[in-house]
Amino acid sequence: MSSYKDTILTQRGSSIASDAAKGKLQFTITRTVASNADFSNYNDDNLAALTKLPNEIQNGSIVDELDDTDQQGTTGTQVRFTNTNVKTAFKINAVGLYAKINGDDTEYLYSITLADSPYFMNDYSNKVYNQFDLIIYVVVGDKANLNLNINPDNFVSYGYLQKRLDLKADKVDLDKKADKSDLARIDLSSATKDANKYTDDNAMLIARDETVTGIKDFSKGFKVNGKNLSLQGDKLTFDGKPLLTASAPNAPKLDISIDKDTGNINYQITPSIIDGGASVTAYTLYYKKAYENNWQVSNLDKTDVNGNIKVDKGVYYQVKVTAKNYAGSSYDSDTKNILTAKVPKEVSLSINNDYPNGFKYNVTVGDDGNANINGYQILYKKTSDTTWQLLSSNKSNGNITNIDYNVAYQIKAKAQNVVGISDESNTVLNSYADNNIYGVKYARYRTDISRTQNQDISNCGIIKNIKPVTINNETFTRIPKFYIKKDFNNDYYEWNISAVKPDDSWYLSPVFIDYSSSDKKELPYVDVSNTINYSAITRKNYHCFDMAMVDVITVLSILEKCNFSCAGNYRNIPIYNRIAIDNLQSPSSWGASYTNLYIKNDSSISKFEILGYSRSGRNTGGITALGYDSRYPYCNLASEATGTGSTILGTNFTSFQGSLQWDVPADSKVFTFDSWADNNQNRYLYFSKAII
Question: Of 48, 243, 252, 440, which residue is the least packed, with the fewest Cβ within 10 Å?
Fold first, then answer.
């Protein structure tokens, strides 16, 4: 719908209105014009300074004067523009009024009215009639000093005619001359109504003291205030100008949608810009199920242009509307078709690791809203991110593949049907990791080693994601978090690893626990140095190479290679033929048995706990077996040794036992050695725990 702003008086218009208010002059609003100029860069001062309206494209008609009862010295001027002579369509961006001071032939631009939303005037090439009416309220000073030039070339308003004549009369014989004294009784509305139905031979006849009983000939017309009211061809005219009559409005526009909460039909009616010359008084809304023949009818007031139709759900409906004015009903609007349904509800999401193919998702919908589900949205992000990524699919299950290994993700889902998209499902927290189990089995003396799980170690996500990283210009090997399970039965060890914890019989190495946090949160990885530093390690977040770290490297190396050959290094981590630091015994100062081994759980020496196995009785020689304590499965120390030489497990030494000491922070249950003597040099291999 078109709309227009408040009117601005030009500088000359303000001057004229001011002088008229003081009684210094009288003036006449002479004509109205339309412009299609672009006024977007004009402010009020620019508009007030104009003396001529830019791009005057059409002259209109002044058809009536209306009083503004709320404003003294303000009047309403009704103007009209039609397309009967328009060859090129245009937008009415502004309407101007011109005026003359009585006694002065100079014409001045009096006021300007700009469009907020301009009326579009179509050309007349298709013989479709357009009419644009606008009431312009302007300050005129004293209304007594204003005249309107209501003498248009094409139109006269019936309202203006009736108001000016102020006639009231009974129906009388039109072929007789009316006395002036009868004019006060003429009811012109009756005359108009009957004249518009002249084809039915019903009209008004005016004669003194007589009423209308019929009409035989209206072609001659009659005089009103000296001006002729007559029928010319098929038009009722007054003083030779057409007297406008109304016809039924054009069909309105109908828009419908589904209320996604109730499944009912929302409707919106937009009146046609061509109302037939009379205001729309009512609407009739028709609706039915698509397979039915009979329409249900809802009669609406003219203000009921927005509303709701309560309908059955899961059914296709058809809806249309007509508009009415006093002249009749419009044609039907376009018939709209719609499926009555609601948005889906009760959406649930499940997520499973499907390594190496990402996360496998499955979406279930408890309530489809009486319409088929036609799409799904899977939203996911790392727990550390703020932005969600979107995966759209037309299937309720599938895989999310664009994810990083060993990273925690939040995942949620939505479902959609023809009505709209559901609310979000539950949010699932999961880490993408290899959920397969990989293992080996070997005899106590590390012979007869073989794989125990039917898995291809080359696809192991843990091993595939061990990679080099650089931190503060130093090179580390990053090992992703994984769980370990060790069993010892009938002189056989079985070691298994998995990126996810199958049950409580599996342990997580202390190197993957942040003991500096109050909740001892799990870390997604640990970084192990690729160099040996010959000075004490004091860097923040770096840790000396400890027994738990030895355990992690031992397990990974044996599982990956399915043998005990660990000479030199593992994944660039130097181990110098000593995969385990096995030469541990209790210092005599602790007052402990020579063969007992202890783990320290507190800063106090008295809180050392004895391990569930004894060290080798030999002080020198190659290690032939490691002990196992299920309470501390990561503590694999020498339990047997040969008398001479060395084995792949390492060698017992006695010469340095006084300088070799293991220590641990309180409550951590992590072995940490302060010094380890090797050829009389202190060496430190260190690692950095992940900071998250």
Answer: 48
The answer to whether 669 and 525 have CB atoms below 8 angstroms apart is: no
Sign of CA dihedral 534, 535, 539, 543: positive
The total number of residues shown for the chain amounts to 692
Cis peptide before 356 (omega within 30 of 0): yes
According to DSSP, residue 154 is labeled S
Neighbours of 577 (CB within 10 A): 12
Name the pLDDT band for 220 (thresholds 50, 70, 90).
low
Cβ-defined contacts of 514-520 (< 8 Å, 24+): 514/689, 514/690, 514/692, 515/665, 515/667, 515/668, 515/670
Query: If you search the block for the tokens 């009117």, which residue do you land on?
Result: 7
Output the CA–CA distances (angstroms, integers) from residue 406 to 230, 269, 360, 409, in the order listed: 94, 56, 15, 10
Q: For residue 657, what are the contacts with CB-CB under 8 A and spacing of at least 6?
A: 583, 585, 587, 619
pLDDT above 80: residue 131: yes
Nearest Cα residue to 461 out of 510, 500, 514: 500
Tokens of 199: 């084809």
HEC string of 616-654? Answer: CCCCCEEEEEECCCCCCCCCCCEEEECCCCCECCEEECC
C-alpha span between 164 and 653 (Å, rounded): 128
Q: How do residues 34-64 score in pLDDT, each as one tens digit? A: 999 999 899 999 999 999 999 999 999 888 8
Choose among 364, 366, 361, 365: nearest CA to 378.
361
In this structure, the number of other CB atoms found within 10 A of the CB of residue 351 comes to 21
Query: Cβ of 337: how many Cβ atoms within 10 Å?
Result: 10
Span of 279-293, 319-333, 659-673 with lowest mean pLDDT: 659-673
Residues contacting residue 483 through CB under 8 Å, at least 6 positions apart: 497, 498, 499, 500, 501, 502, 506, 507, 508
Structure tokens at 157: 């308003």
Q: What is the DSSP string of 316-365?
A: EEEEEEEEEETTEEPPP-PPEEEE-----EEEEEEEEE-TTS-EEEEEEE
CB-count burial class (<10 Å; 0-12, 13-18, 19+) for 40: exposed
Sign of the four-CA dihedral 564, 570, 576, 579: negative
Q: What are phi and psi of 559, to 5 degrees?
A: -65, -40
Comparing 13-27, 204-218, 292-306, 377-391, the range with the smallest average pLDDT is 204-218
Please list, in sequence order, all residues whose beta carbon lies within 8 angstroms of the beta carbon of residue 473, skipping any fewer than 6 positions away.
none
- How, if at all, do strands 282-289 and 492-498 pair? unpaired
Q: What is the separation, in whole angstroms, between the first and last Cα of the chain?
A: 59
Beta-strand relationship, 428-431 and 467-471: unpaired
CA–CA gap between residue 21 and residue 341 (Å, rounded):
64
